[in-house]
Every structure is written in C-alpha cells, then in structure tokens.
Amino acid sequence: MAKIKVAVLGATGMIGQRFVQLLEDHPYFEIGGLYASERSEGKTLNEVLKVKDVRFQQRTLGVKIEQLDVKAISKRCRAAFSGLPTEVAKDAESSLAAAGVAVFSNAASHRMREDVPLLIPEVNPDHLELVRSQPTFSSGGFIVTNANCSTTGLAVPLQAIYQKFGLKACYVSTYQALSGAGYPGVPSMDILGNVVPFIRGEEEKMEAEIYKMLGTLEDGKVRLADFDMIASCARVPVVDGHLESVVLKLGKEAPAKDVIKTLEEFRPEPQRLKLPLAPIHPIIVRQEENRPQPATDALAGEPERARGMAVSVGRVRESKGYIKLWLLSHNTLRGGAGGSVLNAELAVARKLL
Amino acid sequence: MAKIKVAVLGATGMIGQRFVQLLEDHPYFEIGGLYASERSEGKTLNEVLKVKDVRFQQRTLGVKIEQLDVKAISKRCRAAFSGLPTEVAKDAESSLAAAGVAVFSNAASHRMREDVPLLIPEVNPDHLELVRSQPTFSSGGFIVTNANCSTTGLAVPLQAIYQKFGLKACYVSTYQALSGAGYPGVPSMDILGNVVPFIRGEEEKMEAEIYKMLGTLEDGKVRLADFDMIASCARVPVVDGHLESVVLKLGKEAPAKDVIKTLEEFRPEPQRLKLPLAPIHPIIVRQEENRPQPATDALAGEPERARGMAVSVGRVRESKGYIKLWLLSHNTLRGGAGGSVLNAELAVARKLL
Amino acid sequence: MAKIKVAVLGATGMIGQRFVQLLEDHPYFEIGGLYASERSEGKTLNEVLKVKDVRFQQRTLGVKIEQLDVKAISKRCRAAFSGLPTEVAKDAESSLAAAGVAVFSNAASHRMREDVPLLIPEVNPDHLELVRSQPTFSSGGFIVTNANCSTTGLAVPLQAIYQKFGLKACYVSTYQALSGAGYPGVPSMDILGNVVPFIRGEEEKMEAEIYKMLGTLEDGKVRLADFDMIASCARVPVVDGHLESVVLKLGKEAPAKDVIKTLEEFRPEPQRLKLPLAPIHPIIVRQEENRPQPATDALAGEPERARGMAVSVGRVRESKGYIKLWLLSHNTLRGGAGGSVLNAELAVARKLL
Amino acid sequence: MAKIKVAVLGATGMIGQRFVQLLEDHPYFEIGGLYASERSEGKTLNEVLKVKDVRFQQRTLGVKIEQLDVKAISKRCRAAFSGLPTEVAKDAESSLAAAGVAVFSNAASHRMREDVPLLIPEVNPDHLELVRSQPTFSSGGFIVTNANCSTTGLAVPLQAIYQKFGLKACYVSTYQALSGAGYPGVPSMDILGNVVPFIRGEEEKMEAEIYKMLGTLEDGKVRLADFDMIASCARVPVVDGHLESVVLKLGKEAPAKDVIKTLEEFRPEPQRLKLPLAPIHPIIVRQEENRPQPATDALAGEPERARGMAVSVGRVRESKGYIKLWLLSHNTLRGGAGGSVLNAELAVARKLL
C-alpha cells in the first residue's frame, strides 16, 4: 500500500514536533511537508527543535519549514496534522477542509462544533461518522479533533467505568506538566519549587468536552452524557505527564476490585483493529501503593511505537461509597499528537482516507 | 508576668526547630531546654540545624541539645512542645503529662483519644475543655494536640463555611510540600520533576480528624460532624506550603460571593483574644486569578510574628451547584509548630497554664 | 535632613522592583515616581508585580506606573535608579544625565565608558570621582553604573585578596540564578532538572569589567588591573543567588588561613562610613564544609536592611599552589538594585548628591 | 560463542541496576545471579527497583536477589560486576579475585592500587595489562576498576587533547547529578532550587585519578601524568548527567578549531575493536551555542546499545591563551556501570576472559 502524504502544521511547536516524531517511519503515513508561521520559514527542523527527549532521524532534522499555504498543501497532501495555536487554527483548518484535505487537529477551535467528532478511538470511535455531515465532506475534506490533553487521559478509563457502572459524579483535580503550555510557556521563575492553581480555560474545557466524548451518537448527533463533572486544574513543575486525582460516584455502587477488573479488561476498537499507535493495554492498572508517577509512567505503553499512549491508573480504592483513583497520561503524546495520529489511523481503517 | 518555662521535644527535627523559632522572644513562654534522642545529645542547635530559611538568634544557636528525660523536664518546665516522631511521642507525652507537664503536641499519637482535644483555636476552642477529663489533669499535666498539617489548613475555612451553610460533602486533593515529610524525608531522586500521589496515612488522617475538629462538644464529649469527607494526597516538589484543591457541596446552596464574604468576615476567638500568634486575618481571600501559590503565600499573615499563620484561599467559584476553591497554608508553621504554640496561648488565656 | 527625591526606571522588572523594595523608608531617599515603558502606563505596582518574596507596603503597591519622560523626571527628581533593559537604557540614561539627573544604573550600556565609574563602594570607592569628568557634571547630571551581577559577587572578595597578595590568575565558573535573566526570562522547559552552560554576553562582561573595577585611578583615569581572568557561565534551577567556583593563583603564594583572615578583616569604606545598605560584614566566611548555598546564604547580611548585601565565601582551601573557594551573592540585591542604591549612598556621603 | 556467566554485586543500588540493564541481551555476557546485602535477600529486582527511566525485561524483573556469597558466586560465574558501596567492596572484591573471579568494579576501594588498572578503554587500554601482576591472576581472578564518574567524563576528551597538545593545567568545576549520590542519596529539602558546593571526597578523587589514567605504562608500572589538575565539585538538581566546566592551559598553544578537530577525530581502541558498548563517536562535539546540557545530552551515543556512553563536548573556545570548554557524560552509564562493562568487553577482546 502506498503511504498517504500528510502535512504537519505548526511544526515548530511542542505538539508539531511530536507529530513529526510519530510520523517518522509510520506504516500508513509519510510526511509531505512541515509548515509553520512566516517567522520560521526556511529554517530546518533542527534549528527550531523544542522537544528535547526525542531522537529525530538525520534526514528529518534537515527538512525545511515552509510557510503555511493552503493551496500548496492541498496539492501535495491528502491529510494534515495540526498543532497550530488555537487563534490560527480556526480559519486555517476550515480552509484546508474546504480544499479537500482531511484535518486531524489538536487545536480547540472546532472541538465543540456539532458536526466535528471530538474523537478518542478507545472512547467514541463511532463519533467519527460525524464527518459525513460536514459541508466539505463530498470533496474529501473534513475536520477531526482530539480532546484537550487533561480530558483525554481521564476519558479513557472513565468510559470503561461509565459503560459498566454508570456515573453520578466525577470530581477531578489535575497536576499538569509544563509541556502542556507549549514553548516558551511557563516562565521558570513562576513554577520552580511552586504550584500554580490556574490554567486558563482548562477547567471549562474539561467540564464541557467530557460530556460530548462520553455521549452517544443518535440520529447523526451526539447526545451528551449526563453526570456532575467538576474539574480543578493546576500546573506543577514536571516536564511531561498529566497526573489526575479522581473521585467517582458510580451509577451503581461497586467495590474497587470490580472497577480494577473493568479497567484491566477494557479492549476497545483500536486494540481490536491493532492500529499502529494503539497500545496493547490502553489502560495499565498499577498495583504499587505510590503509582502512577510522571517520572516513571509518562511513557507507558507497548510496543515501542506506542510508548506514551497508554493511560496508567493506580491506587483504585473505595471510601464512603465513592471510588478514588489516580491516573496519568502523556500530555503531548496520548493527549496531543499521538491522539490525532491514532484518530487518522482509525479513519484509514474506516476507509475515510 | 513571669514567662512560663517550656521544653521543646524533638528539637533536632523540622517541627522542633520551628518551635524554637516561634519561642524566641515569645511574650508568654521561655525556652527551658531543647530535648531530642540520645544521638544528638550535647550538640548545639547550630550543629543539627535543618530549617534553612529561619534566622535564629546567636544565643539560641549555641543552646545544647539534652537527652529527653521526663523527670528533669518536669522539674524545669511547666509545659512542653512536642515535635517528636509518632512512635516515640506516645509514651513520652503520656509520661510527661503524668509528671504534671502540659504537653502541646504535633504528633498524631493521641489525636483521636476521646479526652484529648484535637485543637485549632480558630476552629474549636471549646474542645480545650476536654483536658479537664484527662486522668492527669489534677496534677496539672495534660495533652493537647494539633491536627495533621493538611487537615489544619482545610479546617479553618471549612469551619467558617460549615457554620454558615452546612456541608454535605468535601472533596479535597492535596499538593503537599516536602518539609511535611521531615528530614531527610523524601529522596531528591523521587521527587525532582515529579509528583508522588501517595503519603502514608495522610488520607486516613484527613478523613478522620476533620469530623472530630468540626464536631460539637456535648456533655463533655465531642459529637462528630457528619458529611462526606473524601481526601486524596500527593507530594509535590515544593519546600513549604500545602496547597489543596477543594470541592464543596454545601448544606444549603449559596453563590461564591456569599462564601467569600463569610470567609473574609471570619473572626474567631484567637483573633478576638489577640493571641500573639493569631494572625489579624485568619483567612486571606485572594482576588487574583492564579493564587494562592506556595511561593507567594506560604508565609501569609500579619503582624510579623504571625507570618505563616494565615490560611490563603483563592479562586472561590461555583460550578453546577458546587463551590470550588483552592487553599494554602504553611505546613510547619500553621499546620505544625505554630498551631501548637497558638494552642498553648489559648490555654494561657483560659487559665490552664 | 530632607530626603532626596528619586525616580525608579524600569519599575515593572525584576531589578526595578528590588529598587522599590530598598527605597521604601530609606533614610536618604524617597520615591518620586515609578517609570516604565508605555505598555504598563497607568497600572499599579501591584498589577505588575514580579518579585515574589518581597513584602511591599500597601501605599507602595498602589503607586501608578508612569511613562518614562525625561523632562517630567528631571523636574521632580534629583536622582534616578535605572533597571531599564540595556537597549533602552543607553539613550534614556544619557538624556537624564543631560537634564541634570544623577543616574545610578544597573544596565550595561555605559559601564565601560572611560568617564563612567563602574562602582562597588567596597571595591573602588575612589572611582566615583570619574563623574567629575562627565560633560554633564556641571549641570548636576551624571551616570554611575554598578557591575554585572556575577562580577559583583566576585569583585568584593577578589579585591580584598588582590590588595593583599596580588593576583596572577582567576578562573571562575558560575552557577547563576534564574532571576538574573529577568522576567519572563528562562522558560521552565529549558531549565527544570537541567543546567544551561551559556548566558549570552556574561563571560565577556566578567572578563572585561573586573579589570576596570580592580584598576587604580591614576590622573583621573582608570589603569586596568592585570591578571588572567577566565570565566565560564551557566544557568542553574535556583531562584536567587549566584554561586561561583573560584580558583586563584596569587601574586605571592599564601596558605588558605591567611586568605581567610584577609577576607574576614576586610572593612572598606562603606562599612567605615556606615552607609545604610552596607552590611556590617561585607564578606562572611563560612566554616561549614558545604556552604555557601543559595538556599541558605542568598540573603546573608546584617542588619535587617542590608539582608542580601553580604557576599558569603566558603571552602577556602589550597591545592598545588592555588587557592580554591566558593562564593555566593544575591544577584538582584548585592549584584543588582542594592549595588546601585549603595552607590548612591556613597555619592551622598561624598556630597555629590 | 557461549556467553560468559557474570554476577552483579550490589544489584539493589543505582549502579547495580544499570549493570542489569546493560547486561540484558549482551552479546558476550549473561547474568548468572544478582547479589546484595542480607536485607534484600529473596526480594525480586522489581521490588527493589531504583532506576526509574529504564525498562527491564519481564523475566529480569522477577529474578531474586541473593545474598553475596563468594563461594557460590565463584562456582557459578567467571566474572562479577561490582556496584557495591566502597566500605563493603574492598574485602568482597579481594575475596572474589582470590576465588578466581574477574572483578570489574565501580567502587573506589582498589582504584589507586599499583597493580590494579584504573581503566577507560578509550583512554588507557594498555593499563589492562597490569592485572597480570596481581597475585591472584594465575587462578584467573583479578580486579579492574573504572574511574570516578566525574573523572571519567573528563578523562576521555582530556586524553585526546593531552596526546596531541600536551597539558600544563586543567581547571574543572563540576555540576553533578543526583544519581551520583546513589539512593536515597541527597534529601530533596537540601537540593530543590539549590546547589550544594561540596561532594565528599570527590575533588580528591578527581585530582588523583586523572594522573594515573593519563599516565603511561612503563616497565609494568604506571608513570603518572604531570600537570596542574584543580577540581571543584558541586551537586545540582539534575537527575542524570554530570556537566563540567573546563579550562585548559595546553602544552603548546593551539586555536579552538584545532582542539575541536582533535576531539572529533579521536578514534581509540574500543571503537577500532567495535566493542558492543563502544559508541561510534566516543566524543560528540556540539556546535550549538548552549550545549551540552544534561536534559538533552546525557543519553548521547550510537548505536542504541551505546546510548549514554558518548561524552558530549561543547563551546570549545579560546581566551587569553587558554582553551575553555564544557563537557557532559552520563554518570551512571559512561561514568558507572557502562564503563565497567566496556572494561570487561576489552578484557574479552584481549583474551583475559
């Protein structure tokens, strides 16, 4: 099978460079071009490198950044992965879809649009069908978005639990990594030896997106899920990996061991389809008393290609009729670029690409 | 008025040295001796110094640590402040009380004893009366404990809210500082650029202590408060200051602004009595969108003597019928040594010392 | 004595706010206005606050930032303290001097000008006389600069040693704090759990400035000092306090104990004059095997007003004919705003203000 | 070729676990047993895991730790890799050598013994011959040590320079990682947001070991190198990777570009022999203005197996007749377990195993 040519938009940023990492030697996709704002035009990836723990191939490091040009991209690429900043993403992604390009976006701009799937293949694969109602679909162009990074890590185990036990309420407090703020992002003076209990727009996103993702597709529309979702978000001095403290009031009460079993046995569609970036175990339940931790678990996931794509859950315990647990996911892989690439892999499996 | 001679137990530790700091030039108390385990006997405070941001007076730095000897202490001191490790504290504190010494303890050993007040003067000053039912009381000896550091910061604003609006549930996730683990405490390899979502015994303490503290004294016994208290505790790479994310279901629903007003107008007994360590404002409500933070607010409190004794609250907001807020308190001052000294000040005001 | 009205330039920055801190209730000076670029015009100090560990007085917090206007400043203020960024400082400071204002600057722009003193009162008080040869001097306007922050901490003990033993070579490697880069300064992603072995222009400044400061005034000109000065500079994840590893080849070999004695007995002019910001001991020699450290020693200096103005030196030892030592100084106090205020105090003592 | 059975001593520690990581699927060696003190006897590797960024194979994780027993080891294993603490290593290693086991040690105990090679295959491969003069050699037992972690990173580029240009003096200041102190090692309260300018015994080791390693073998003895080696050592809040600031006075002056060329062209014996752990480029010279950095360069080295075995050098520049440069090496791989395994590989190549 010939590989599908794809563009990476926002290639100078944190998420953009994670896209590049994941697309090097991808079995379905091949990078057709790296695009960013005018400022970086003509520079090589190597000159604008921001993600530090990634080893890019020599040939990739030399690729030149081009200026974002809808016509040029649509001629060269069937699909585009967007790591654009929200304010730029809205128009650029719409234009690309109009020009017949399938856009897999990490930006928030189109997430809550009725006809745009807010997609996590482990959570709501059927929502992908929404693209068929997008006005540009007939030309081959459409937009699929992934969720906010902190919502993604939560949505995977929450869906497993929600399907099995129902949910009355979910109270979550986050411990979010610095890479989630992009680059330069958080000034070091603000966060070294400190915690900042505020991330602009984050709580609102978490409280809105989860209802859409856990919603069901009925008559071509998403019927929102219904429970109390209460989020509080903070930034901590950690490079990668969003940790979340979760308290759940289940629809029907259940002991912690039943919840653990449900999480461990969760095998949704991407795992059944064996999509390249789907980790064998989408949820890894830790038995240790003090896990998951960003330093040890951010890169959880097998095989090698799927490192950083598993969600780690630990300390599942009950208290006064509630279930408490901690979860951790890699915010720029599972909750960022990796999510969008997995979305595109599902689109390939469903013959949309 | 002649000053009351007091002993500091566990003077080589984090809490012990905070006791020393607070007792230098205290208007009611005077250090009669510094005591610790055999290992440190004969060393000066200067040689065993662990708290780094404190400036001790030259004369104090030269004071020699003595071995803990109940008889010697009871001869010399009317009261003792205990920063002993839990395993040592139980027997040592009991023996001292039996020997007629008033013990103000930071250790957990006696906290849940029916006749021991788990005291925060801003929260439950009347509980101090419990000491009268202790078997050693007639000899002048008794035990008063302060609460666990993370419970203390929570209890102050919670009491203000509970009294006014009632409470159905309190969901709290903590972001706790390193000094809470004592010294050497948390190995740097475990916490640098990381978060550890586990602190042994901490969630259990928070979930148990709060009911006793917010309970009412009826017929000489504490009648426990009744609401859902659900705690999840984590350690973050911060030196001082426990931050807590709090979600409340009030007894009767109220808008955020009423909660803010209630917190700002809270003027409990220690403030009315103008106790030396009582901060003018026991709760400081921040208006900024991103406060309180450990780096800026751990040492909140006026006047100078009461620095670190105020609890900072911020981002009080409502969502779907819940109140969300963040709070911060200094764990070894407000939640440690400062709490015990304030307890002793209340005991003086109530003529128990 | 009526207080001298002074302007603070660059009041929204790290250094500017340290100026404000040091000028609150200063015995000689009184703040006449806070000035910054257009962007901050009309905001209060409170709204632009960047220095987090400082407690400003309520009245100061409400002062409004004004736009930098030479005419207005010269009418209102006799002197100005400049924390302006280098690119702005050059012209602004020249204009102010031309308008008759005495400028005490933390910027690098004029440091190497032949007729501008690069002044540390403990090191080269006589250099202040250079201002008399500035073209604007007759109108009362002149410029005095302090040294680069890392050079300052070095220059004080180095001068004590140089005067006594002479110097053949000084090899220094720095461990510099984040506040030295201003705000937002270093992105957290770049420095958390990391060290960056490069600070633009820093090594060049250290290698140039030290010769001028340790030089002697001959016929109204500075004759540069002459030895091998070799500097390597790195940024470390520390908030305040530049630590430096120093190796010295003395002019005449001497044992470590003689060097220690020389450092301890150093009592230069500001101490003899008892200038308000001059610490009683300009150099504090630590005896511990592991000091000085930023966490414990950045704020060294007595009395209270002079906290952060002393240079701490430790581990003075000899090896193969060299003297090795570590030194630490507060980069935005001793090496920043405090240095300039002390310069102005010397100017008052010498009747130049 | 049948693999050689090897023991790992001190398998519960930081270095021990790096040995295990490097020996999984090693082409020459096979783990015959994991050994540690009594305390850990019977626990699995998984239960005592300290190195967090390493992925061990499932089968290895289940291996049980045995108590160190010379007889049992000598029966089962031809060689042993020792990550024992210095105080235990001395006798244990001697006994093993006496029992016919070839010991490759990371401990300091035997490093300066006249008949023990202090070996870095890139630096002084010929010193391996010293083992022939050890009293136990006839029985097959001998001891080979690697150097102190901070000395190792320095020795590789220094040897390249020394051989080409000679050396009059080397002034080095270190920025050392936490993993160098083992586990639990440095308390977090001591190092978060701080630098500690003292590591016990480290400067003495660096100043002594470098002369032996750069020395030449003459008549079966090492003739020490001769130049001024001056070291100052500090601990910084970094997990892995020792950074060093180096100033050199060459034997014959040379421009920076010649030094760079010499470093880049350095191809010593392990690279010529293509030993498994020998990185293709033993020294990687970075062109960027701000490298090497621990976060980006600690794991330098190709191929995959040799990650963490290359020494990165950057900012090679000249000033006043000196050469300045920064270097970085992974302290528990290149400067620890990896060094010893490479030593053993050289021993195989030279038919000593």
Give your account of this protein's structure:
The structure is a homotetramer of 353-residue chains. The longest helix of chain A is centred in the middle third of the chain and has 17 residues, at 149-165. A six-stranded parallel sheet of chain A has the order 3-2-1-4-5-6, with helices on both faces. Chain A has a six-stranded mixed sheet with strand order 10-7-11-14-13-12. In chain A, 29% of the residues lie in helices and 23% in strands. Chain A has helices spanning 14-23, 58-61, 70-76, 86-98, 149-165, 188-191, 202-213, 256-264, 269-272, 294-297, 333-349; strands spanning 4-9, 29-36, 65-67, 79-82, 102-105, 142-145, 167-176, 216-218, 221-223, 228-235, 242-250, 283-285, 311-319, 322-329.
The CATH architecture of the largest domain in chain A can be given as: 2-Layer Sandwich
Total domains of chain A: 2
How would you name the oligomeric state of the polypeptide chains in this document?
homotetramer
Structural class of chain A: alpha/beta
Number of strands of chain A: 14
Give the amount of beta strand of chain A, in percent: 15-25%
Name of the CATH first level of the largest domain in chain A: Alpha Beta
**Largest β sheet strand count, sense and barrel closure of chain A:** 6 strands, parallel
Q: Output the helix-strand order of chain A.
A: EHEHEHEHEEHEHHEEEEHHEHEEH
CATH-assigned homologous superfamily of the largest domain in chain A = Dihydrodipicolinate Reductase, domain 2
Unreliable stretches covering 5 or more consecutive residues of chain A: none
Largest interface: A-B, 38 and 38 residues
Cα shape of chain A: globular
Helix proportion of residues of chain A, in percent? Answer: 25-40%
Tally the helices of chain A. Answer: 11
